[in-house]
Amino acid sequence: MNxxxxxxxxLVLTVLTVALLIWTCFYAGGKYVVFDPxxxxxxxxxxxxxxxTSMAALLIVPVMILTFFIxxxxxxxxxxxxxxxxxxxxxxxxxxxxxxxxxxxxxxxxVITARYTYLLEPSKxxxxxxxxxxxxxxxxxxxxxxxxxxxxxxxxxxxHIPKGVPVRFELTADAPMNSxxxxxxxxQIYTMSGMAMKLHLQADQEGTYFGSGANFxxxxxxxxxxDVEVQSDEDYKNWVANIKKQSKPLTKDGxxxxxxxxxxxxxxxxxxxxGLFQDIVTKYVVEGAPNxxxxxxxxxxxxxxxxxxxxxxxxxxxxxxxxxx
Length: 325
Hints:
This protein has two domains: about 100 residues, no CATH class; about 150 residues, Immunoglobulin-like (Sandwich). The chain is built from six helices and eleven strands. The strands form two sheets. It has a six-stranded mixed β-sheet with strand order 8-5-1-2-3-11. The protein has a five-stranded mixed β-sheet with strand order 4-10-9-6-7. Helix 2 runs antiparallel to helix 3. Belongs to the cytochrome c oxidase subunit 2 family.
């Protein structure tokens, strides 16, 4: 087989591969949840992905086509009629084209990225006439504890939120660092011990959505999954009322047992200890120490400061892996 059919076969295979990827992502009915957003943050992130990919394709696709063309056009073959110019130096026109186009694309990408970075800042409250629901998230080994301080209830490995209402997540960890992620609602954000992160999301359609830890955190990290149940406002209120009537309370001893490494099924609690989330966040804070995390990693937490609010816990409360980005 000569080189011409080989080049044509390679080109055909490349085109078919790209077409197959596009088809499976958008038309094959697969669950590519990032491309099926159910809230304003997820939708904005999808737009950013498409815009960035399209801009990159303006460079990548022509380069790939020209690569195959050059390989075929200047192949070593007896019947090749391509003009041979061994002493050809440069072309000001070509140099201008292949330098100016990437520069313009990069500048456009920079503007787009900067705009969406500020727009999707995870700690930025969402514009809404609805009062946000606050959910305090604690990453444990290997489960998720969700506390609703305003409702006075808690759940394990499952979240309920009302449709169309902003949700303010306050996130920490009482275990190795993890990353909280609901792909159809928004980007992931770190959960770290000794810090209270913030993340604002919203779901605009009822349904059950997939949530997961997105960071390696030990033996069962792959099972740190949870469901997000989006309900009507009435159903949400009924759910809260049913938990208060039918579920057991979460005590401090109960929390200590829950925090031990191990897997857990979904669970619900009718009440939570006052200040439990703040106690978890400030667990390693030692009064008078120059380093606010002086007790981190130690066996004793005596003398820990239990005062303050989650707004003041950790100056890095807005650090995130990808946040809304």
